Amino acid sequence: MGQPARTRRQAVSKALWISVWMLYLAGPVADLFTGSAPLTTRVLGAVGLAVYVALYFALVFRHMWRGVTVRAVYPLLVVLLALSVALVWNLGPNWLVLFIFTSVATGVVLPWEHARWAVPAVTVVLLTVGLRFPEVRGYYLLAYGLPALGTGYTMIGVQYLIRTTKELRAAREEVARLAANDERLRMARDLHDLLGHSLSLITLKSELAGRMLPGRPEDAAAQVADIERVGRQALVDVREAVTGYRRPRLAVELAGARAALRTAGITADADPALERDPALPEPVESALAWALREAVTNVVRHSGARRCTLRLTEERDPDGVPALRLTVADDGVGAARGTAEGNGLGGLRERLALSGGRLETGPGDGRGFRLAAVVPVPAEGTVPDGGGDGPADGAPAAPPAPGTAR
User: Fold this and answer.
1) pLDDT tens track for 24-79
2) 369 shares a domain with 221
3) Edge to edge, what strands does the sheet with 369-376 contain?
4) 156 and 259 together in one domain
5) Which of these three, 148, 170, 192, is where a domain ends?
6) Spans of biased composition, class Pro residues (predicted)?
C-alpha cells in the first residue's frame, strides 16, 4: 500500500483494482444506446465520456506513480467537474454517477486541507444539477449525494492511511540505519579498547627487541616472549568479543521468527512469557534462542502449516532443578514415518546437551509436529555441564546446520 508498482504484475493488479469501479458507468453507457436523446447528442456524450474516463485515469495513475502538485491537479478536476455537469445536463439523471467519480478523484489527489472543502463542493454541485430532473428529486439525495460525499471522504481517509504507512516505513528504515550505525560504533570502541593497548605494547616491545639485537640476545628473547604473551592474550580477547557479538538473544530470535512465519503465511501464536525478555543466564538464553531459530526454520521449510504456537513454561526435572521448556508446535503435515533426524536437529540436540538440556520431538496434538527444548536454569554462580555455549578454547560456536528433515 502506498508504493508504486515495481513489476508489471503489480502495475496490472493496481490498474485492474481501479478499473473494476468503472462498472458503475454501466448506466451512462447503456443510456448512450437506449436513451431518448438525439443521435448527435448521444455521439457527443460518448466522446465526452471517453474524455472524462481518460482524464480520470490520467489523474489517478499519475498521482499513484509520480505524484502531482496541487496547481496541476485543480485544472484537471475543474475539467472533470465541468464534463460531469455538461453530460448530466444534456443526457439525463443516469449520468449523475459521474459526480461520484469526480468526488473520488478529488479525495485521492488533493491534500486533506483542500479535499475536505472540495468534496462537499462537488456534492453541492451534484445536488444543484439534480434539481433539474423532477423524476429523481425524491431519492437522488440518497442515491447520489450521500455516496458522493461518503466515497470522497473515504478516499481522504485512505490517502491519510497511505501517508502514515509511508512515514512508518521511512521511520523503520531510519531506526534500522541508526541501530546499525550504533552497532558499528560500539564494535569500533570495543576493538579499540581490546587491541589498542595490546598493539601499542607489541610495537614498543618489537622496537626495543630490535635495538637489543645483536648485542643483547637474551634480553631481546625476553621481549619476544612478552610479545608472544601479549599477542595470545589479544587473540583470546578478540575471540571472546566475537563470541559475545554472535550470541543469540531470545527477543531477537522471536522477532526473526515472527517475520519468517509471517512471510511464509503462517500465523504465529507467541506466549506472552517470550515477549517479556526475562533476564536469563547467558548459556540458557543462547540455548533457547538456538532452539527457537531451528524449530521455526523447520516449520517454515517443511511443515506446510497454517498456524505455529510458541510457548515458554517453567518446570522442574526429577532432581528438583528448575528448568525452562520452549515448545514450538505447528498444525502442518508432521514428520513422515521412518524419516531420519536431520543435521539441524542433531546439532541442536548436541548444543542443548552442552547446557545440560535435552530435545524432545514428536507429533503435535492431533496433527503437525512438536519440538520442545528443555534447559535447566542453574543456581546463581554455577555453570552447567559443558561450560557454556562454545568450545573450550573460547572460539565462537557455529550455528547448527539447517535440518534436512524433521
Assistant:
1) 788 788 888 887 778 888 888 889 889 988 888 888 777 766 666 667 788 889 99
2) no
3) 267-270, 307-316, 322-330, 369-376, 358-363
4) no
5) 170
6) 397-406
| Cβ neighbours of 135 (radius 10 Å) | 9
Residue 336 covered by a domain: yes
CA distance 277 to 281: 12
CA distance linking residue 63 with residue 115, whole number of Å = 15
What pLDDT digit, counting tens, does each position of 72-96 carry?
A: 788 889 999 999 999 988 888 888 8
For 308, the domain range is 250-376
Where does a domain end: 170, 190, 211? 170
Distance CA 337, CA 264 (A): 25
Residue 369's φ and ψ, nearest 5 degrees, are: -135, 145
391 inside domain = no
Number of domains comprising the chain: 3
Query: Would 386 be classed as within a structural domain?
Result: no
Q: Are 195 and 258 part of one and the same domain?
A: no
- pLDDT for residue 380: 56
One domain, residues 142 and 166? yes
Q: Indicate if 82 and 121 belong to the same structural domain.
A: yes
Please report, as a single letter, which amino acid is at residue 146: L
Cβ atoms of 369 and 330 closer than 8 Å: yes
pLDDT at res. 329: 92
- Integer Cα distance of 339 and 76 in angstroms: 66
CATH number for position 225: 1.20.5.1930
Q: Are 78 and 105 in contact (CB under 8 A)?
A: no
- On the question of a cis peptide bond just before residue 378, with omega within 30 degrees of 0, the verdict is no
DSSP state of 312: E
Alpha-carbon distance of 63 to 83, in angstroms, equals 21
- 237 and 92 together in one domain: no
CA–CA distance, 363 with 368 (Å, rounded to integer): 6
Tell me which residue has cell 453507457.
29
Q: Are residues 200 and 276 in the same domain?
A: no
Q: Using an 8 Å Cβ cutoff, are 334 and 369 in contact?
A: yes
CA dist 347 → 76, 298, 307, 343, 403 (Å): 65, 13, 25, 6, 9
CA nearest neighbour of 148 among 89, 81, 103: 103
Distance CA 306, CA 334 (A): 12
- Contact status, residue 291 vs residue 371, Cβ threshold 8 Å: yes
